[in-house]
Automatic annotation (TrEMBL):
One of its GO terms (molecular function) is hydrolase activity. This is Phospholipase/carboxylesterase/thioesterase domain-containing protein. Gene3D superfamilies: alpha/beta hydrolase (3.40.50.1820). Residues 21-243 form the Phospholipase/carboxylesterase/thioesterase domain. Pfam families: Abhydrolase_2. InterPro entries: AB_hydrolase_fold, PLipase/COase/thioEstase.
C-alpha cells in the first residue's frame, strides 16, 4: 500500500513534498506501529520489503519516502533526504529546520493510530538520525523550534546513524517531567565497526550522549565486520529487542 503527500511544518519556512509511503500491515494482532525511515538517496519501498520478512506479526510498519532536496554534501545536487547534510563529522552544523520538518512528518504519520497501540520510530543512517532526534523531541516535549511534540513514543531505533544536536543536548533535560520521559524511553542504537560512510565512533558517541543525558534505557550493539548496511544478525537482534521491549505476543 502506498500514498504520497505534502507536509508543511508549523511555523517553518520550508515546504516539502514527501514521496510514496509504503505500509506493511501486521499479520497478527496489531500491538505496535513503527515509522521506519530510510537513508540518504533511498526510498520507503526498499525497507518495507525487508521489514515485511521479519518475524514480528504484531507490528505495523509505515515506511515513508523522504522529499528530494538539494544536499550540501553533494554540492547542492538533489537527493531523497530527511534533512540537509553539510558534512559527516562531529562539528558539522545541524539542519534544525529540516530535522523539525522530518520529525513532524513522523509524528503526523503516527497521529491517527488507535489509542491502545504502542508507537515508535526507527531508521537507517540519516533515517536513524531523524529517529534519535525524535527521541529528544519526545523527552523535551517540543521540537527544536519550540512547537509541542504530540506523540507518546514507546520505542526508538537507530541503525548506522548518529544523534543530531548531541553537542547541544547537555543541560536541556533538567525538568522533572522531561527527565522521566527520557528515562522511560527504550532506545536501540546499532553500528558496524566497518562503516565507511557514518564512522562507528558516531554511533558509539551518540549512544554515550543519550545515556549521559538521562536516556537510561539506551542499548548499544556493535558489529565487528559490519559496514554501512544491515545483516541478518542485526535484524534478528532488533526483532528480539522489540519483542521484549514492547511485550509483543509473537
Amino acid at each position: 500500500m502506498s500514498f504520497s503527500g505534502a507536509a508543511v511544518g508549523s511555523n517553518l519556512r520550508r515546504a516539502v513534498e514527501f514521496g510514496k509511503t509504503h505500509v506493511v500491515r501486521p499479520k497478527g494482532k496489531h500491538q505496535a506501529t513503527i515509522v521506519w525511515l530510510h537513508g540518504l538517496g533511498d526510498n520507503g519501498s526498499s525497507w518495507s520489503q525487508i521489514l515485511e520478512t521479519l518475524p514480528l506479526p504484531n507490528i505495523k510498519w509505515i515506511c515513508p519516502t523522504a522529499p528530494s532536496q538539494p544536499i550540501s554534501l553533494f554540492g547542492g545536487f538533489p537527493s531523497t533526504a530527511w534533512f540537509d547534510v553539510v558534512d559527516i563529522n562531529e562539528e558539522g552544523p545541524d539542519d534544525m529546520e529540516g530535522l523539525d520538518v522530518a520529525a513532524a512528518h513522523v509524528a503526523n504519520l503516527l497521529s491517527n493510530e488507535p489509542a491502545d497501540i504502542k508507537l515508535g520510530v526507527g531508521g537507517f543512517s540519516m533515517g536513524a538520525g531523524t529517529s534519535l532526534y525524535s527521541a529528544t523531541c519526545f523527552a523535551l516535549g517540543k521540537y527544536g523550534n519550540g512547537n509541542p511534540y504530540p506523540i507518546n513514543l514507546s520505542t526508538v531505533i537507530g541503525l548506522s546513524g548518529w544523534l543530531p544536536c548531541a553537542k547541544t543536548l547537555a543541560g536541556k533535560l533538567e525538568d522533572e517531567q522531561v527527565k522521566n520521559r527520557a528515562a522511560s524511553l527504550p532506545i536501540l542504537v546499532c553500528h558496524g565497526k566497518g562503516d565507511d560512510v557514518v564512522p562507528f565512533k558516531f554511533g558509539e558517541k551518540s549512544s554515550q550522549a543519550l545515556t549521559s543525558n538521562g536516556f537510561k534505557k539506551t542499548t548499544f550493539k556493535a558489529y565487528t565486520a559490519l559496514g554501512h548496511y544491515t545483516i541478518p544478525q542485526e535484524m534478528n537482534e532488533m526483532c528480539a529487542w522489540l519483542t521484549s521491549t514492547l511485550a509483543l505476543e509473537g
